[in-house]
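hey can u check if this looks right to u? its 350 residues, i copy pasted from the old doc so theres a chance i mangled smth
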Amino acid sequence: MPTSINLRAAGELVVAAETNNMIWNAVAIDGARIFVAGPRWTGVNGPAVAILENGKYLRPFPSAGWNDWKPGGDPAQTFVNVNALHRDQQGNLWVIDTGAPTFGGDPLPNGAKAVRINLSSNDVDRVYHFGPLAALAGSYVDDIRIHGDVAYLTDAGRPGIIILDLITGGARRALEGHPSTTAPDDRPIVLDGVVVCAPDGSPLKVHSDPLEISPDGRYLYFGTLHGPWSRIATRLLDDSSLSPDELASYVEPWADLPPVGGAAMDRDGALYFTDLAMNALRMRAPNGTFSTVVQDERLHWVDAPTIDNGWIWLPVPQMDRVPLFHKGVSKIVWPIRLFRYPLSNLKIGD
Protein backbone atom coordinates (compact mmCIF):
# COMPACT_ATOMS: atom_id res chain seq x y z
CA MET A 1 0.00 0.00 0.00
CA PRO A 2 1.58 3.34 -1.00
CA THR A 3 1.89 6.24 1.34
CA SER A 4 -1.05 8.54 0.78
CA ILE A 5 -2.24 11.97 1.83
CA ASN A 6 -5.91 12.68 1.97
CA LEU A 7 -8.36 14.58 4.09
CA ARG A 8 -10.67 11.71 4.89
CA ALA A 9 -12.61 12.90 7.91
CA ALA A 10 -12.99 10.52 10.83
CA GLY A 11 -15.18 12.45 13.23
CA GLU A 12 -13.23 15.53 14.16
CA LEU A 13 -9.93 13.70 13.73
CA VAL A 14 -8.70 13.89 10.14
CA VAL A 15 -6.45 11.24 8.62
CA ALA A 16 -3.87 13.42 6.88
CA ALA A 17 -1.57 10.62 5.71
CA GLU A 18 -0.87 6.94 6.21
CA THR A 19 1.81 4.48 5.20
CA ASN A 20 3.00 0.91 5.40
CA ASN A 21 6.58 1.92 4.60
CA MET A 22 7.72 3.99 7.57
CA ILE A 23 7.12 4.44 11.28
CA TRP A 24 7.09 8.18 11.81
CA ASN A 25 7.25 9.67 15.27
CA ALA A 26 7.95 13.25 14.18
CA VAL A 27 6.24 15.73 11.88
CA ALA A 28 6.90 19.28 10.72
CA ILE A 29 4.78 21.48 8.49
CA ASP A 30 5.91 24.13 6.00
CA GLY A 31 2.89 25.53 4.20
CA ALA A 32 1.54 22.69 2.09
CA ARG A 33 4.61 20.55 2.69
CA ILE A 34 4.61 17.77 5.28
CA PHE A 35 7.87 16.34 6.63
CA VAL A 36 8.02 13.12 8.64
CA ALA A 37 10.81 11.19 10.37
CA GLY A 38 11.34 8.07 12.40
CA PRO A 39 14.14 6.28 14.26
CA ARG A 40 16.15 3.45 12.75
CA TRP A 41 15.51 1.05 15.62
CA THR A 42 11.81 0.71 14.79
CA GLY A 43 12.89 -1.86 12.23
CA VAL A 44 11.51 -0.39 9.00
CA ASN A 45 13.46 0.45 5.86
CA GLY A 46 12.05 3.82 4.84
CA PRO A 47 14.06 7.05 4.77
CA ALA A 48 15.08 8.62 8.06
CA VAL A 49 13.54 11.96 6.99
CA ALA A 50 11.01 12.23 4.19
CA ILE A 51 8.73 14.72 2.53
CA LEU A 52 5.27 13.54 1.59
CA GLU A 53 5.26 14.38 -2.11
CA ASN A 54 2.34 14.58 -4.53
CA GLY A 55 0.11 12.99 -1.96
CA LYS A 56 1.57 9.54 -2.47
CA TYR A 57 5.31 9.09 -2.05
CA LEU A 58 7.92 9.34 0.68
CA ARG A 59 10.84 11.19 -0.92
CA PRO A 60 14.06 11.26 1.12
CA PHE A 61 14.73 14.78 2.37
CA PRO A 62 16.80 16.85 1.86
CA SER A 63 18.51 14.27 -0.37
CA ALA A 64 19.01 10.56 -0.81
CA GLY A 65 22.61 10.99 0.32
CA TRP A 66 21.64 12.33 3.73
CA ASN A 67 19.40 9.27 4.17
CA ASP A 68 21.95 6.72 3.00
CA TRP A 69 23.87 5.93 6.19
CA LYS A 70 24.95 2.31 6.55
CA PRO A 71 27.15 0.64 9.19
CA GLY A 72 30.70 1.75 8.54
CA GLY A 73 29.60 4.89 6.73
CA ASP A 74 30.40 8.48 7.70
CA PRO A 75 27.95 9.54 10.44
CA ALA A 76 28.93 13.22 10.25
CA GLN A 77 27.02 14.04 7.06
CA THR A 78 24.25 11.44 7.07
CA PHE A 79 21.28 10.67 9.33
CA VAL A 80 22.14 7.79 11.66
CA ASN A 81 19.07 7.69 13.89
CA VAL A 82 16.63 10.60 13.71
CA ASN A 83 14.36 11.20 16.67
CA ALA A 84 12.84 14.67 16.15
CA LEU A 85 11.93 17.40 13.68
CA HIS A 86 11.34 21.04 14.53
CA ARG A 87 10.45 23.97 12.28
CA ASP A 88 11.63 27.29 13.68
CA GLN A 89 10.27 30.80 13.10
CA GLN A 90 13.04 31.64 10.61
CA GLY A 91 11.98 29.06 8.04
CA ASN A 92 14.42 26.31 9.01
CA LEU A 93 13.80 22.64 9.57
CA TRP A 94 15.87 21.12 12.38
CA VAL A 95 16.63 17.40 12.32
CA ILE A 96 17.80 15.87 15.60
CA ASP A 97 20.02 12.85 15.11
CA THR A 98 20.87 10.78 18.19
CA GLY A 99 23.89 9.42 16.34
CA ALA A 100 23.40 5.96 17.86
CA PRO A 101 22.25 3.30 15.36
CA THR A 102 20.86 1.01 18.08
CA PHE A 103 18.41 1.65 20.91
CA GLY A 104 20.37 2.36 24.07
CA GLY A 105 23.67 2.36 22.21
CA ASP A 106 26.41 4.98 22.25
CA PRO A 107 26.50 7.81 19.71
CA LEU A 108 29.02 7.28 16.95
CA PRO A 109 31.84 9.85 16.71
CA ASN A 110 30.33 12.96 15.04
CA GLY A 111 26.99 11.14 14.85
CA ALA A 112 24.99 13.06 17.46
CA LYS A 113 24.02 16.32 15.80
CA ALA A 114 21.42 18.93 14.99
CA VAL A 115 21.06 19.52 11.27
CA ARG A 116 19.59 22.83 10.10
CA ILE A 117 17.93 22.84 6.68
CA ASN A 118 16.94 26.06 4.95
CA LEU A 119 13.42 25.42 3.68
CA SER A 120 13.70 28.10 1.01
CA SER A 121 16.60 26.35 -0.72
CA ASN A 122 16.06 22.86 0.74
CA ASP A 123 19.77 22.75 1.51
CA VAL A 124 21.57 21.88 4.74
CA ASP A 125 23.14 25.17 5.82
CA ARG A 126 24.72 24.10 9.10
CA VAL A 127 25.43 20.96 11.09
CA TYR A 128 25.97 21.23 14.84
CA HIS A 129 27.95 18.29 16.20
CA PHE A 130 27.61 17.83 19.95
CA GLY A 131 30.86 16.00 20.60
CA PRO A 132 31.70 13.60 23.45
CA LEU A 133 31.36 16.22 26.20
CA ALA A 134 27.75 17.05 25.29
CA ALA A 135 26.54 13.72 23.88
CA LEU A 136 27.88 11.15 26.32
CA ALA A 137 28.09 7.39 26.15
CA GLY A 138 24.47 6.25 26.40
CA SER A 139 23.08 9.65 25.37
CA TYR A 140 19.89 9.79 23.29
CA VAL A 141 19.57 13.39 22.13
CA ASP A 142 15.81 13.71 21.98
CA ASP A 143 14.29 17.03 20.91
CA ILE A 144 15.03 20.74 20.48
CA ARG A 145 13.51 24.14 21.20
CA ILE A 146 15.08 27.49 20.33
CA HIS A 147 15.12 30.93 21.94
CA GLY A 148 17.18 33.62 20.28
CA ASP A 149 20.68 32.36 19.60
CA VAL A 150 20.41 29.43 22.02
CA ALA A 151 18.91 25.99 21.54
CA TYR A 152 17.93 23.61 24.31
CA LEU A 153 17.86 19.85 23.79
CA THR A 154 16.80 17.02 26.06
CA ASP A 155 18.78 13.82 26.57
CA ALA A 156 16.53 10.82 27.11
CA GLY A 157 19.43 8.40 27.56
CA ARG A 158 21.70 10.25 29.99
CA PRO A 159 19.56 12.62 32.07
CA GLY A 160 20.33 16.25 31.42
CA ILE A 161 19.78 19.26 29.18
CA ILE A 162 22.12 20.19 26.34
CA ILE A 163 22.58 23.93 25.75
CA LEU A 164 23.73 24.81 22.23
CA ASP A 165 25.12 28.19 21.23
CA LEU A 166 23.85 28.68 17.68
CA ILE A 167 26.51 31.27 16.88
CA THR A 168 29.66 29.49 18.05
CA GLY A 169 28.35 25.94 17.82
CA GLY A 170 29.55 25.20 21.34
CA ALA A 171 27.47 22.80 23.42
CA ARG A 172 27.45 22.07 27.14
CA ARG A 173 25.33 20.07 29.57
CA ALA A 174 23.20 21.25 32.48
CA LEU A 175 21.06 19.65 35.20
CA GLU A 176 23.10 16.49 34.84
CA GLY A 177 21.37 13.68 36.77
CA HIS A 178 19.01 16.15 38.44
CA PRO A 179 15.65 14.70 39.60
CA SER A 180 13.87 16.91 37.05
CA THR A 181 15.71 15.20 34.17
CA THR A 182 15.86 11.66 35.60
CA ALA A 183 13.14 9.08 35.01
CA PRO A 184 11.46 8.21 38.33
CA ASP A 185 11.03 4.66 39.58
CA ASP A 186 7.39 5.07 40.61
CA ARG A 187 5.77 6.38 37.40
CA PRO A 188 5.77 3.52 34.86
CA ILE A 189 4.62 3.98 31.28
CA VAL A 190 1.32 2.13 30.95
CA LEU A 191 -0.63 1.52 27.74
CA ASP A 192 -3.72 -0.67 27.52
CA GLY A 193 -3.18 -1.48 31.18
CA VAL A 194 0.28 -2.97 30.57
CA VAL A 195 3.61 -1.54 31.73
CA VAL A 196 5.90 -0.87 28.77
CA CYS A 197 9.19 -2.69 29.28
CA ALA A 198 12.64 -2.26 27.78
CA PRO A 199 14.23 -5.09 25.74
CA ASP A 200 15.78 -6.49 28.94
CA GLY A 201 12.34 -6.87 30.52
CA SER A 202 12.65 -4.04 33.03
CA PRO A 203 10.18 -1.13 33.01
CA LEU A 204 11.18 1.27 30.25
CA LYS A 205 12.76 4.49 31.54
CA VAL A 206 13.00 7.59 29.37
CA HIS A 207 14.87 10.51 30.92
CA SER A 208 14.51 14.17 29.87
CA ASP A 209 12.30 14.10 26.80
CA PRO A 210 9.51 16.64 26.13
CA LEU A 211 10.26 20.34 26.39
CA GLU A 212 8.72 23.67 25.47
CA ILE A 213 9.58 27.35 25.80
CA SER A 214 7.05 29.84 27.14
CA PRO A 215 5.66 32.24 24.51
CA ASP A 216 7.61 35.13 26.04
CA GLY A 217 10.82 33.08 26.05
CA ARG A 218 11.32 33.45 29.80
CA TYR A 219 10.99 29.81 30.81
CA LEU A 220 11.96 26.37 29.63
CA TYR A 221 9.40 23.74 30.59
CA PHE A 222 10.66 20.17 30.57
CA GLY A 223 10.31 16.73 32.09
CA THR A 224 10.97 13.06 31.67
CA LEU A 225 8.56 11.10 29.51
CA HIS A 226 7.03 9.83 32.76
CA GLY A 227 6.37 13.29 34.22
CA PRO A 228 6.15 15.48 36.19
CA TRP A 229 7.34 18.66 34.44
CA SER A 230 9.56 21.40 35.83
CA ARG A 231 10.53 24.87 34.71
CA ILE A 232 13.61 27.07 34.87
CA ALA A 233 14.31 30.57 33.57
CA THR A 234 16.13 30.52 30.24
CA ARG A 235 18.41 33.35 31.41
CA LEU A 236 19.73 31.04 34.10
CA LEU A 237 20.32 28.16 31.71
CA ASP A 238 22.19 30.59 29.48
CA ASP A 239 24.49 31.64 32.34
CA SER A 240 27.48 29.31 32.14
CA SER A 241 29.02 30.90 35.24
CA LEU A 242 26.48 29.23 37.55
CA SER A 243 27.68 26.09 39.30
CA PRO A 244 25.62 22.90 38.88
CA ASP A 245 24.27 23.27 42.42
CA GLU A 246 23.39 26.92 41.89
CA LEU A 247 21.52 26.15 38.68
CA ALA A 248 19.72 23.20 40.26
CA SER A 249 18.45 25.42 43.06
CA TYR A 250 16.41 27.43 40.53
CA VAL A 251 14.45 24.46 39.12
CA GLU A 252 10.76 24.76 40.03
CA PRO A 253 7.87 22.28 39.82
CA TRP A 254 5.51 23.27 37.03
CA ALA A 255 2.92 20.63 36.09
CA ASP A 256 2.17 17.13 37.32
CA LEU A 257 1.72 15.59 33.88
CA PRO A 258 1.31 11.83 33.35
CA PRO A 259 3.51 9.87 30.93
CA VAL A 260 3.26 11.66 27.58
CA GLY A 261 4.37 10.83 24.08
CA GLY A 262 4.94 14.47 23.19
CA ALA A 263 3.68 18.01 23.57
CA ALA A 264 3.27 21.32 21.78
CA MET A 265 2.64 24.80 23.19
CA ASP A 266 0.57 27.43 21.41
CA ARG A 267 1.07 31.20 21.33
CA ASP A 268 -1.15 31.67 24.38
CA GLY A 269 0.82 29.27 26.55
CA ALA A 270 -1.63 26.37 26.41
CA LEU A 271 0.22 23.06 26.46
CA TYR A 272 -1.23 20.24 24.38
CA PHE A 273 0.11 16.86 25.40
CA THR A 274 -0.55 13.26 24.42
CA ASP A 275 -1.63 11.19 27.40
CA LEU A 276 -0.34 7.68 26.68
CA ALA A 277 -2.53 5.82 29.14
CA MET A 278 -5.70 7.53 27.87
CA ASN A 279 -4.98 7.37 24.12
CA ALA A 280 -5.83 11.05 24.21
CA LEU A 281 -4.77 14.57 23.40
CA ARG A 282 -5.15 16.71 26.49
CA MET A 283 -4.52 20.33 27.27
CA ARG A 284 -3.13 22.27 30.21
CA ALA A 285 -4.52 25.80 30.05
CA PRO A 286 -2.40 28.78 31.11
CA ASN A 287 -4.38 28.91 34.37
CA GLY A 288 -3.26 25.37 35.22
CA THR A 289 -6.54 23.56 34.53
CA PHE A 290 -6.65 20.38 32.47
CA SER A 291 -9.10 19.15 29.85
CA THR A 292 -9.32 16.33 27.33
CA VAL A 293 -9.37 17.59 23.74
CA VAL A 294 -9.94 14.30 21.96
CA GLN A 295 -9.77 10.66 23.04
CA ASP A 296 -9.69 7.83 20.51
CA GLU A 297 -8.25 4.31 20.54
CA ARG A 298 -6.47 5.09 17.26
CA LEU A 299 -4.34 7.63 19.14
CA HIS A 300 -2.16 4.86 20.56
CA TRP A 301 1.18 6.39 21.53
CA VAL A 302 0.95 9.66 19.70
CA ASP A 303 4.49 11.00 19.69
CA ALA A 304 5.67 14.57 19.05
CA PRO A 305 2.75 16.72 17.84
CA THR A 306 3.11 20.09 16.16
CA ILE A 307 0.77 23.07 15.85
CA ASP A 308 0.36 24.86 12.53
CA ASN A 309 -2.27 27.29 11.24
CA GLY A 310 -5.01 26.30 13.67
CA TRP A 311 -4.39 22.55 13.49
CA ILE A 312 -2.46 20.15 15.68
CA TRP A 313 -0.77 17.33 13.81
CA LEU A 314 -0.55 13.97 15.58
CA PRO A 315 1.87 11.27 14.37
CA VAL A 316 0.96 7.83 15.73
CA PRO A 317 4.04 5.57 15.61
CA GLN A 318 2.71 3.03 18.18
CA MET A 319 6.20 2.98 19.70
CA ASP A 320 5.40 0.39 22.33
CA ARG A 321 4.39 -2.07 19.60
CA VAL A 322 7.67 -2.12 17.63
CA PRO A 323 9.60 -5.43 17.55
CA LEU A 324 12.30 -4.11 19.89
CA PHE A 325 9.91 -4.29 22.84
CA HIS A 326 8.39 -7.68 21.94
CA LYS A 327 11.37 -9.98 21.43
CA GLY A 328 11.57 -9.20 17.74
CA VAL A 329 7.87 -9.61 16.97
CA SER A 330 6.04 -6.56 15.64
CA LYS A 331 2.71 -5.68 17.22
CA ILE A 332 2.20 -2.66 14.95
CA VAL A 333 -1.33 -2.22 13.62
CA TRP A 334 -0.78 -1.00 10.07
CA PRO A 335 -1.01 1.47 8.49
CA ILE A 336 0.90 4.06 10.49
CA ARG A 337 -1.20 7.22 10.46
CA LEU A 338 -0.75 10.93 10.77
CA PHE A 339 -3.83 12.69 12.08
CA ARG A 340 -4.65 16.35 12.39
CA TYR A 341 -7.22 18.00 14.62
CA PRO A 342 -8.64 21.55 14.51
CA LEU A 343 -7.81 23.75 17.48
CA SER A 344 -9.52 26.91 16.26
CA ASN A 345 -12.86 25.97 17.84
CA LEU A 346 -11.40 25.36 21.31
CA LYS A 347 -11.78 27.87 24.11
CA ILE A 348 -8.86 28.14 26.44
CA GLY A 349 -8.95 29.20 30.07
CA ASP A 350 -7.37 32.45 31.20
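The longest strand covers residues 4-10.
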